[in-house]
Amino acid sequence: MNNKITMTLNVDNLILMALQEDISSEDVTTNAVMPTEQNGQAQLICKQDGVLAGLYVFQRVFELLDQRMQVEFHFKDGEQVKKGDLIGTLTGDIRAILSGERTALNYLQRMSGIATYTNSIAALLEGSKVKLLDTRKTTPNNRIFEKYAVKTGGGFNHRYNLSDGVLLKDNHIGAAGGVKEAVQMAKDYAPFVRKIEVECETLEMVQEAVEAGADIIMLDNMNVEEMKQAISFIDKRAEIEISGNVTKENIKHYISLGVDYISSGALTHSAPIMDISLKNLHAI
Question: Pick the catalytic residue: 47, 131, 159, 169?
């Protein structure tokens, strides 16, 4: 995300869409109180402890409104901040600062909230070989931001989208006529470099998936005892992922099972925002 060329190619259009959502024709309030250009400065202040993510996205919002906007940060993405810390300073057209404030903060607060929540769960996995994964349970048109925030917080990305890997879920299996049939069809269709993952809700499905040659088996919404039985049966013949209502509160029950991955939709769909404010705007 620090690569500005990559940023411009992939997210400028998304940021512009967000700005257009907030400014459909004009910013009436700003135009009323600031009819002409006036340079100003504002401070970005942290209002709670957490992990920062999305600083360049925050900056880019203002750059798209004012090419001369200068943003100086005192921290980097992935760094811990404390309540009261001065994260950075904006200097530029006051009109751009006023009009871009909410959109920029929405990105930064949301992304930093995800990074902070992810970091708190990843800390529980320290010392183990288990990788914490996100899911596709992301806000539409914000996946690139939210998955970046997960990585910044110490997690790992599962497949980015449907083009990124084969994951046979319950409805795919139902459509194919069974686990064995779904795995075989995936092997026949997908390039050989793609791993095939199968979501299993029962021990019977686990057995079928192993016998069909699945590369990764997801144990979905099983209780701990069922997981232990499934892991014993798999016996390293496939990588193992645990999924289904995994949260900060219950993840401790899964750490010692000997699985490879734990995925949690909560990283993106349930993380609270981090409280950050843009304050002390004044003309210079």
Answer: 169
From the list 93, 208, 220, 241, the catalytic residue is 220
Alpha helix stretches (DSSP H) within 66-142: 94-122
DSSP string, 54-78: -HHHHHHHHHHH-TT-EEEESS-TT
Active site residue 169: yes
> Do you know the residue count of the chain?
284
Return the residue matching tokens 């940021």.
15
Cα dihedral 92, 105, 99, 137 sign: positive
* DSSP structure class, residue 29: H
- Per-residue pLDDT reduced to its tens digit, 105-154: 999 999 999 999 999 999 999 999 999 999 999 999 999 999 999 999 99
Q: Does domain 122-269 have CATH number 3.20.20.70?
A: yes
Is 220 labeled as catalytic in the residue annotation?
yes
- Domain ranges across the chain: 4-117+272-283, 122-269
Q: Where are the alpha helices (DSSP H) in 123-178?
A: 143-152, 170-176
Distance CA 205, CA 122 (A): 29
Helix then strand then coil, in percent of the chain rounded to 5, is 45, 20, 35
Q: 8-53 pLDDT, tens per residue? A: 678 999 999 999 999 999 999 999 999 999 999 999 999 999 999 9
Q: Is-catalytic flag, 102?
A: yes
Q: Catalytic one among 47, 49, 102, 215?
A: 102
CATH of 4-117+272-283, one of 3.20.20.450, 3.40.50.1000, 3.90.1170.20, 3.40.50.300: 3.90.1170.20
